[in-house]
Amino acid sequence: MPETIEKTPVKLNVNGKAYARNIEPRMLLVEFLREELDLTGTHVGCDTTYCGACTVLMNAAAVKSCTVFAVQSDGAEILTVEGLEKDGQLHPIQKAFGDSYGLQCGYCTPGLLISTYQLLSHNKQPSEKEIRKAIAGNTCRCTGYQNIFKAIQLAAQNKTGA
Amino acid sequence: MAINFGGEEKKWVGKALPRKEEDRLLRGRGRFADDIKLRDMAYLRFVRSPYAHARIVSIDTSAAEALAGVVCTLTGKEIVPQTQPFIEIGPDSKVRDYPFAVSKVRYQGEPVAAVVAESASIADDAAELVQVEYEALEPVVDAEQALQDKSILHEEAGTNKIWNGVFEYGDVEKAFQDAASVVRIDRLHFHRFSSTPLENNVVIGEWNQKDDHIYYSCNNSFPSFAIQFLSAHLNVHIDRIRVQTSDIGGSFGIKITSYPQMAVVALASKKAGGRPIKWVETRSEHMTSSAHGNERTFRDTRVALDKNGVITAITSRHIDDCGAYPRYEPLGCVIWSQVFPGVYRFKNARIDFTQTVTNKCPVGPNRGYSRMQHLWFLERVIDICAHELAIPGDEMRMRNYIRPEEFPYTTPNGCVYDSGNYPRMLELAKQLIGWDEWKKTQAEARKQGRLIGIGIGTTLDSGTNNFGQSQIVNPGAPFSGNSQGANCKLDIYGEVVVAVGSCPQGQGHETTAAQVVADVLSIPPDLITVRTGFDTERNVHTGFSGTYASQFAVSGLSAVHGAAQKLKAEMKRLAAFVLETKDDDIEFGVGAQGPELRAKSTGKSINYWGLANIVNVNSAVLPPAMYDITLNCRYIWRAPFKVPDKQRKYGNLTLTYASQLHIAVVEVDRETFIPAFLDYVAVDDCGTVINPPIVEGQVYGATAHGIGAALLENCAYDAVGNMLTSTFSDYTPITAVNMPKIKYGHIQTPSPHSYSGAKGMGEGGAAPIHTISAALQDALFSNGIIIEDSFNNADSLFRALVGKEICQADKLVKLERRAS
Fold first, then answer.
1. Measured between CB atoms, which of B67, B247, B250 is closest to A142?
2. Domains of chain B as residue ranges with CATH
3. DSSP readout, B559-621?
4. Å between A133 CA and nearest CA of chain B
5. Which of B30, B98, B371, B754 is least surrounded by Cβ atoms within 10 Å, i.e. has the fewest?
6. Does residue A105 sit in the same domain as residue A44?
7. pLDDT (0 to 100) of residue B6
């Protein structure tokens, strides 16, 4: 029978704001974001690192937050979908997804926006192949990806590299 | 955006209006069920069977209950005295279906108990502590074996057979006597897969002990169906069950059958003293135990053809596998017959249809539900006959298609195809893909030994069901017709608010409903609020409300249109009274005071606030003759259906028939046997289009589901019923790297059966599955291969081409040519 689990302190910066919490070491980063910080834009789709609905930026690298323990992100800078907009204005990547009808149910969208952010921060003019590769770990069950490809191309054209 | 009076009337229906849903979803501010937290909420975890078929000897929950933070546990034995078994749709069904296995388990992943705890992680820990002793029984995973009844799942029923019926029309025997050739196909098989919405099932339920109401926030996609099942099961008046949905992360039909989990959550809440309980399904739970699509085997098919290759008759035996419990079944045993002849003209046919249970996950409606299996069968018949008779696939279709001038077309079983033009779609698809060029390329490539195939799939997406078809499977079923509700009101301050009985999952209902109302009231859609999600307490649902079966554009928008018309008529009467003029002197538009109504004769106007003010808070100025005006207009739209003839299995089963025509060019690698796309085109016809990019998005999405199903996605079981694809890493949903670029085209043949000419179109007929099977057969036919399964990956193509274990034309197909 599991004994009472000792809590561990973590401090991290999410969307520019500092947070400190005592948490169970087994708590996943995605649970931390959703349950502790109420940042529910980051979603869980598969629990096993396939679908990427939980993708966030951790120290400028896209990670699947369902496969990172919150304690592993101690001291890290995290960017989630909620941190993309600025002064109420959509980030150009968000706008490009909207303009291209690059979402339907919107469940995968936060993860895709973050993966796109990561791609365009390294590669201002990605080829179609590079786009496909960059979002290979983001499953979308609604759009058939066609309008997502268009959205990422549009975001790149608008020179929106993060 | 303002519409001024006297200007050209602006129509919003048909425009590429940006979606109203987008802003919140892009900002991460969508409200999905798992985002909801309630005060004092506890968390539920299921304990599930590792066996596919076993007797439950004992369940010991004491260790789980002793764990700190555990609120309670729940087992099947406990709930039986408190509940009725779920309603069975089948006739005289002896199946007793509870949300837990009671004395035995019938599929791997079936819930046997639940634990409720203060946190999700304590619930996880506690579930591990529940001790269940099983005595394994012989599992049966194959439908044809199940029908031998050697191992019976539901002893009370005495058989695994759930339903059988013969659908016979025309003069089959004469057609075979007169045939110039007869093709026999021993076996075809449509595999089991699921559209696996990215958001798993979620239920938050509270059985409030103070008011004895049950409150649900969940992502069920057919709540009005769920409450009918829950009310009877839980012995609770249906009006005491409130179901709310908000944003839903996809359903594709799969979330229709989450009512058993909803029942458990309510019962657990009751045991926990009325606390709200949250259950969030894991992906593995979703894969093993939510719902899969129907698996179907087609046996002993005989096809009669005339000397021109025109099919004159088909006979066949179809065996549908519904998994361990029928649940929504046996409705699938008749729903396929909405598209009985597919897009083809044959008049004579006999289909002997049987459904059986097996020790696998229960099935549920899955995008293309029950029709796609049949359409795949018909497309296989067309291509196999074409290859046997050496008729090109395009030519074979042209000879057999229902002709454009024959619409509205009555099928042999009485369905009325509203409109369509299949030859025109084929022509457009060929043009878009560059058919002649590909034919040349293919011929050249074949000389080099490359395996390139070009395949066509022509399919139907029948939308807006006549629920009277349920009486064909069960003459006592109390369902017929179809209806949807909507409400359109001016709120106290004159804001236009629309509520619909659908529960969308990305189909853009908020947007398209606003477009319809904008046209009725001549105001921009920005000024119209459409309520998100579904809520029984909005009182706009009927027993058919929900989002399923490709119907919103017809049933949902017809209801919205009706409610808006009602509101408009009331506004006009009221404005005429205030402005002291006649009703027909009133015009609608946007003026200096925002949206308003104006008297053409005098130029005087009153805005929406002014009208709403009179009715809601200034009603002493209203004459009694106008007390019937509420500016709060509920409208129920009803589909013009009749109850079908149950004996003949004859009648119109669906209101609209959208059609799809896809062409794929596929190459099978000679070394790896991996099939790859060289080109792909999807042409769609859903009648009048409400919002073109939304329609295009649905086509792409349905195409991805079909391609995934054809090549990647298979709910595989081993011989003893272990599910082998219980994670996404095993199931491999289609990704951005294996989704080809789609060329898109469309034609519009407006439906005479809907007010706007639109047809429902969300499911897409699973066109890629048929198209890819056709392309693979075209690539491999010269190697003696007939594609016999709807699922084909590198492994199965290797087994066909090298192992010669499957898909062997000489074993599966026989052609008999008769002397003329």
1. B250
2. 22-30+483-638 (3.30.365.10), 33-137+201-280 (3.90.1170.50), 165-194+291-468+644-817 (3.30.365.10)
3. HHHHHHHHHHHHHHHHHHHHTTS-GGGEEEEEETTEEEEEETTT--EEEHHHHHHHHHT-GGG
4. 6
5. B98
6. no
7. 53
